[in-house]
């Protein structure tokens, strides 16, 4: 079974925010999804950076308020996702 | 003068609280998936409305709030405040606690967190090189103090906590630990003059 980068990002979200893996990624949003408060956001940033071996800049950290924006920023950083 | 109010979402009449919320607040409430998050949100904003209504001698539903950012002009990610002016306030919630802090001067940031949250992996993002090394609950306490500071300055997520030395906080912020129930840490930060830019 191949694990896609998208699946890896879902797992990072689920583990960082302590939510089920079947969460609705299209609806995931900072301060609206369970666990995604400021502390959850910092956990998420660290986990994304470690999992994908990237470094999000300050603007990306502030602007990464949805799952799809996380995907967008990872693409900007050269990840195939 | 800073005044503090507490509420416990599990102990309030959430239906009555929801009747106080504005249409915009109900939209935000309905976006929350978790019942616990919904309870914290309605308890928090009902507490804000009841408290500020009493201070301003108006009906709770008559209050209008803005979230426009004072630092960059963004319409929605700024510190919430009263459109018509009035005391500065800051709201925070965690677990079964909602904290509201109101200051009649300057700006204020408040934070409450459950003391048992695991922040071990966040240490290098929380601690300034000159902050005392700490871990476990003391690291959570450090988070709470710095979260209060970045809420007071209005920078929020835009100001990495590791760039803040607690012994020399930015903009002359005064940081005060607030007595909280067992299992929680709380703090407020007060700034006489808020920063004008990011």
Q: How large a portion of the residues of chain B is in β-strands, by DSSP E?
A: 15-25%
Structural class by helix and strand composition of chain A: mainly alpha
**What sequence of helices (H) and strands (E) makes up the elements of chain A?**
HHHH
What's the order of the H and E elements of chain B?
EHHHEEEEEHHEE
- How many DSSP helices of chain B? 5
What gap, in angstroms, lies between the N and C termini of chain B? 27 Å
Rg result of chain A? 11 Å
| Strand proportion of chain A | under 5%
Give a count of the beta strands of chain A, DSSP E runs of length 2 or more.
0
Main sheet record of chain A: none
How many helix segments of chain A? 4
Description of the molecule:
The complex is a heterodimer of chains A (81) and B (198). Chain A has 81 residues and is mainly α. Chain A has helices at residues 5-17, 38-52, 58-63, 67-76. The model of chain A has no long low-confidence stretch (mean pLDDT 93). Chain B has helices at 14-19, 23-31, 35-56, 123-126, 137-153, and strands at 2-7, 65-66, 81-82, 88-94, 97-103, 107-114, 174-178, 184-191. Chain B is globular and about 45 Å long. Chain B is an alpha+beta fold and 198 residues long. In chain B, a hairpin with a 5-residue loop joins strand 7 and strand 8 (184-191). Chain B is built from 5 helices and 8 strands. In chain B, strands 1-5-4 form a 3-stranded antiparallel sheet, with helices on one face. A 3-stranded antiparallel sheet of chain B has the order 6-8-7, with helices on one face. Classes of the chains: A mainly alpha (81), B alpha+beta (198). The interface between A and B is medium-sized, with 14 and 19 residues.
In short:
By secondary structure, chain A is mainly alpha-helical. Chain A contains 4 helices and no strands. The model of chain A has no long low-confidence stretch (mean pLDDT 93).
């Amino acid at each position: 079974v191949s694990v896609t980068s998208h699946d890896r990002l879902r797992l990072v979200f689920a583990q960082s925010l302590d939510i089920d893996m079947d969460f609705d990624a299209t609806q995931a949003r900072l301060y609206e999804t369970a666990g995604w408060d400021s502390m959850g956001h910092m956990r998420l940033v660290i986990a994304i950076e470690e999992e994908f071996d990237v470094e999000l800049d300050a603007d990306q950290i502030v602007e990464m308020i949805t799952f799809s924006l996380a995907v967008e920023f990872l693409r900007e950083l050269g990840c195939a996702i | 003068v800073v005044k503090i109010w507490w509420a416990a979402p599990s102990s309030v009449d959430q239906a009555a609280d929801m009747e106080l919320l504005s249409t915009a607040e109900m939209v935000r409430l309905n976006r929350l998936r978790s019942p616990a998050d919904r309870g914290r949100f309605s308890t928090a904003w009902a507490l804000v409305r009841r408290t500020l209504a009493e201070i301003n001698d108006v009906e709770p539903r008559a209050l209008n709030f803005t979230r426009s950012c004072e630092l960059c002009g963004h319409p929605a990610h700024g510190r919430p405040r009263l459109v018509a002016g009035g005391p500065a306030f800051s709201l925070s919630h965690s677990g079964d606690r909602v904290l509201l802090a109101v200051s009649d001067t300057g700006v204020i940031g408040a934070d409450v967190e459950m003391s048992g949250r695991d922040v071990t992996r966040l240490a290098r993002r929380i601690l300034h090189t000159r902050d005392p090394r700490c871990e476990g609950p003391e690291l959570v306490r450090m988070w709470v103090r710095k979260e209060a500071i970045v809420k007071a300055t209005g920078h929020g997520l835009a100001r990495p906590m590791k760039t803040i030395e607690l012994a020399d906080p930015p903009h002359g912020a005064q940081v005060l630990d607030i007595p909280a129930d067992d299992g929680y840490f709380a703090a407020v930060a007060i700034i006489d003059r808020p920063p004008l830019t990011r």
